[in-house]
Design a protein that fits this description.
This protein is an alpha/beta fold and 521 residues long. Helices cover 34% and strands 21% of the residues.
Length: 521
């Protein structure tokens, strides 16, 4: 993990591999951003023109390296684009700083230390830069490199030779935030918060990126148990016997075709000063083949990411514990592997859910809503003040909102609006979605209480209406469909890597913080 420090040192005298400065996009060309004044002065005030000569414009996502001025102990200056110059009397947005720091951290992979001389006017800015740097430095290399248990030195040497140029660079080791105030409590708290949230988000990314042969329901439950011991979180795991005894027909039905049996994991973080209780429920399909309703070729390769909702919930609960938030947070991980086999649930089968309702399964690839239904019913028994479920639930939501924005549905308009505002605040694109009641009729079944499929058009909204059926009466609830942003298959951008993203972690953590502060009623 990348270490974070606050520094009052001058950029010229700091020993580092690079000094990171910001450059904005002005009306007449690039403009050097606040924080880089001393660096610009060392270029005789011509840093912007030098960068323009090198092709930089100040656009977001740009990264331009140039030799450091004479007298600097760091050999390289890295200029990262911040986008448009803010309007008069306005500062750079926190998300702009996060993304710029992420770009810099990615560009400096393999470096021991970088000094960030980005615009830093408040503790909030320090937190944003710190968060962006840690998230941008992320890489998943667990399955690359030389085996630790090489038989002998010769095996290790041969393996290294074969590996050769394929060596991957490690993450940036240390990020020093210039202009920070090491003795200021607000600055220290902002950086410590960024460290806790970003590290847990990166842990969620690790889980999402782990191959399904190594991350099956029992293995995921073991990770949760280990984290519980480390951070004082009570963890309860229901195995297949307990699920059968308890009548969890949805989770059992989805997991019936796999040799790796399902699990329902409860993580309980409690605070003696808590006045509110939040429940987070995560879809944890550790691999989704579609079951008997098998996915077509080309749609299976990334289905290890179908547990991204459970990963987000897990990370958020651990982050809440690390931050010592004065709110009780319960996380529910509904874990199963959806596979086709002779024992798998078939289209046309009827499952009796934990709630007692019966569901006719018309499509076994609409499995996430089945495991979530059982977990939502169980979570409702604790009578929390609010429940939020997170799931890579529907391709329809991706079609509606694209691959960077998650949808929000809720049984309370004010709560939906609050989550939308929170997501925007932390830099996670989202959009409020409706739940038209007329779509409910499409799930009527002649055989059971409800079918797991309805009208094809508006499928993401239909899924939300299905889940609503299993939320306890009188409980405020929201559903986050993160199918689009949970797994990024393109080139990295900002602080977002290729692969698992950790979508919704920061929204859940900020929701817990605002609830602890009494800002959500």
């Amino acid at each position: 993990m990348t270490a974070l420090t606050l520094s009052t040192a001058a950029a010229s005298g700091l020993r580092a591999d690079a000094i990171v400065v910001g450059v904005a996009k002005g009306a007449k060309g690039p403009v050097v951003a606040p924080g880089a004044e001393s660096v610009d002065k060392a270029y005789d005030g011509k840093l912007a023109s030098v960068l323009e000569t090198l092709g930089a414009s100040g656009s977001e996502g740009e990264a331009t390296k140039l030799p450091a001025p004479s007298g600097f102990k760091a050999p390289v200056i890295l200029a990262v684009g911040l986008g448009a110059v803010p309007e008069k009397d306005q500062a750079f947005d926190a998300e702009v700083l996060r993304r710029a720091a992420g770009v810099a951290a990615r560009a400096l992979a393999g470096s021991k230390k970088a000094a960030f001389a980005l615009p830093l006017e408040s503790a909030g800015d320090a937190g944003a830069i710190a968060e962006g740097a840690i998230l941008g430095a992320y890489s998943f290399d667990a399955y690359k490199g030389i085996a630790d248990n090489a038989k002998d030195a010769k095996d290790a040497k041969d393996a290294k030779a074969k590996k050769g140029a394929k060596d991957t660079k490690g993450p940036l080791a240390e990020a020093a935030l210039l202009g920070g105030k090491p003795r200021d409590k607000a600055y220290k708290a902002a950086v410590e918060r960024a460290l806790a949230v970003a590290e847990e988000l990166n842990r969620a990314r690790d889980l999402i990126n782990t191959p399904p042969n190594d991350l099956y329901p029992e293995a995921f439950a073991a990770v949760a148990q280990a984290a519980g011991k480390e951070h004082g979180i009570k963890v309860q795991v229901l195995d297949e016997k307990a699920l059968t005894k308890g009548g969890y027909g949805g989770i059992l039905g989805v997991g019936a075709g796999s040799a790796a049996p399902p699990r329902l994991v409860k993580l309980s973080y409690t605070s003696a000063k808590a006045k509110k209780h939040l429940a987070f429920v995560g879809k944890g399909i550790t691999y989704d083949s579609g079951g008997i309703s098998l996915k077509p070729a080309g749609h299976n390769e990334t289905m290890k990411c179908d547990m991204s909702g459970a990963a987000a919930v897990f990370a958020a609960v651990v982050a809440a514990a690390r931050l010592g938030l004065e709110v009780n947070v319960t996380g529910w991980l509904a874990l199963a592997e959806n596979m086709p086999s002779g024992s798998a649930t078939r289209p046309g089968d009827v499952l009796r859910m934990y709630s007692g309702k019966t569901v006719e399964v018309l499509n076994t690839d609409a499995e996430g809503r089945l495991v979530l239904a059982d977990a939502l019913t169980k979570a409702s028994e604790d009578k929390p003040d609010a429940i939020v479920d997170v799931a890579t639930l529907t391709g329809a939501m991706v079609l509606a909102l694209g691959d960077r924005t998650f949808g929000i549905m809720a049984n309370d308009d004010a709560f939906r609006t609050s989550i939308h505002e929170i997501a925007d605040e932390v830099g996670e694109p989202s959009w409020p979605m409706p739940m038209p009641e007329h779509l409910r009729k499409g799930m009527d079944s002649p055989t059971a209480d409800i079918a797991n499929m309805g009208e094809r058009m508006g499928g993401g909204l239909v899924a939300g209406l299905f889940l609503k059926e299993f939320v306890g009466e009188g409980i405020t609830w929201a559903h986050l469909d993160i199918a689009g942003p949970a797994f990024h298959e393109g080139a990295p951008f900002g602080y977002t890597p290729k692969g698992g993203t950790g979508s919704a972690v920061r929204t859940l953590v900020r929701l817990a913080e605002r609830t602890a502060a009494g800002d959500l009623g």
